[in-house]
From TrEMBL:
GO terms for molecular function: dioxygenase activity. The keyword Transmembrane does not apply. CDD domains: VOC_like. PROSITE patterns: VOC. Gene3D superfamilies: 2,3-Dihydroxybiphenyl 1,2-Dioxygenase, domain 1. InterPro entries: Glyas_Bleomycin-R_OHBP_Dase, Glyas_Fos-R_dOase_dom, VOC_core. The keyword Repeat does not apply. This is Putative dioxygenase. The lineage of its organism: Bacteria, Pseudomonadati, Pseudomonadota, Gammaproteobacteria, Oceanospirillales. Keywords: Dioxygenase, Oxidoreductase.
Amino acid sequence: MPTPFHLAVPVRDLEEARHFYGGLLDCPEGRSSDSWIDFDLYGHQFVCHLDPTLGETPRDDCRNPVDGQGVPVPHFGVVLEMADWDALVDRLTAAGIRFEIEPHLRFAGQPGEQATMFFRDPSGNAIEFKAFRDIDGQLFAR
């Protein structure tokens, strides 16, 4: 099994982050303080650090073209099994999440074919969740 990554991102409000990551994305909460919260993001240590200077307006990040889409940069996310990706799409759609890039199949019929979607957390952090029919064979396919 690969080792988990650790990622820390700024958020404008910890309770808002707790609701989004712990509630909507169903990430179990680990340790926390009055300035940060650890979450288990599909087996990875994901930390939200309070940055009250972020304000109400999400960041306007740059975009790079990928398969005809303007992909927000920077972004982070997790590669899921296809069934888990489908279930997450259903949960996010039911919750009324506004997608930056709608769930779709990227690189169809090519090496690296993947299901992908992009959305933002309440603090404006761009998130991508993707899935492959064959993760081991397609994740780094050329």
